[in-house]
Design a protein that fits this description.
The complex is a heterodimer of chains A (122) and B (156). Chain A is of the alpha/beta class and 122 residues long. Chain A is 45% helix and 19% strand. Chain A has a single domain, classed as Rossmann fold, CATH 3.40.50. Chain A contains 5 helices and 5 strands; from the N terminus they run βαβαβαβαβα. In chain A, strand 1, helix 1 and strand 2 form a beta-alpha-beta unit. Chain B has one domain: CheC-like (Chemotaxis protein chec), CATH 3.40.1550. The chains are: A alpha/beta (122), B alpha+beta (156).
């Protein structure tokens, strides 16, 4: 499965990529470094099965990116992966179209659980 | 000026949690004290301004060895020297620590907003916290090498 990972930290993109490959050996990770780059990669990778996006990023943040993706009518599920753990932020993201929410820091098992829950994998 | 050293506690908990979860390494907490100069202990420091209902900053300062060990563990590799990977990793650790502390302080007068982290490299480098705002330092060891978490924060 192709997975678009949007995060301004190259470290976090690599951590997520390493975690994905540990439990999804067929994962093909496409990286983007902010919401603008993420939206370009989203348009160019409509065969992606999942999007994981940070919230706090320069230029175009994760919430704006999420709203742009949702506005296209895309069915690709978006999971927010962010340090923004306050309940009001979670509610805002879900109301804006995010399918799930992972708070940083996380372990690979936590990420795996949220992805499986989102994709309906038991 | 009165200093509430308990303010450092959410940042200490966030530091331990971030490193245990993202790097599978447990930092050992040493002492906590109020800082009186601008000199940082390390070779590389991650810095983040805190804004919103407070003014202040957080600085996490590492020796070369502790920075390389931490980021190597985060990425499942090893580093001998500070490079772009280590620099980005230290910025991300500051982001993880500040983000968790922000949630812990959400319902207090110290509720803050985070900014994009930056990094300073060089031995005995100096960074000024905001003048007049006390700076509390928590010292840790990581694999036997020191690092510090400095928090300077006051309500507006």
């Amino acid at each position: 499965m192709k997975v678009l990972v949007v995060d301004d930290s190259s470290t976090m993109r690599r951590i997520i990529g390493n975690a994905l490959k540990s439990f999804m050996p067929d994962a093909e990770v496409v990286e983007a470094e902010d919401g603008n780059d993420g939206f370009e990669k989203f348009e160019a990778n409509q065969d992606a099965g999942l999007i994981l996006s940070d919230w706090n990023m320069p230029n175009c943040d994760g919430l704006e990116f999420l709203k742009k993706v949702v506005a296209t009518g895309s069915k690709i599920p978006v999971i927010m992966v962010t340090t923004e753990a306050e309940k009001s932020n979670v509610v805002t993201a879900i109301k804006s179209g995010a399918k799930n929410y992972v708070t940083k820091p996380f372990t690979p098992d936590i990420l795996k659980g949220k992805i499986n829950q989102t994709l309906g994998i038991s | 000026m009165k200093v509430d050293v308990n303010l450092i506690n959410p940042f200490i908990a966030a530091t331990v949690n971030a490193m245990e979860m993202m790097a599978m390494i447990k930092p050992v907490r040493k002492k906590v004290y109020v800082k009186t100069d601008n000199i940082l202990i390390g070779d590389i420091s991650g810095i983040m301004g805190l804004s919103g209902e407070v003014s202040g900053s957080i600085i996490v300062s590492f020796t070369k060895g502790s920075a390389c060990k931490l980021v190597g563990n985060m990425l499942g590799t090893s580093y001998d020297d500070i490079n772009d990977d280590v620099k980005d990793g230290i910025q991300e650790i500051v982001n993880l620590i500040a983000g968790q502390a922000k949630t812990m302080l959400a319902d207090t007068e110290y509720h803050f907003q985070v900014s994009i982290p930056t990094c300073v490299i060089g031995s005995n480098h100096q960074v000024n916290h905001k003048k007049g705002v006390p700076c509390i330092v928590a010292e840790f060891e990581l694999d036997g090498q020191p690092f510090t978490v400095e928090v300077s924060i006051s309500p507006k």
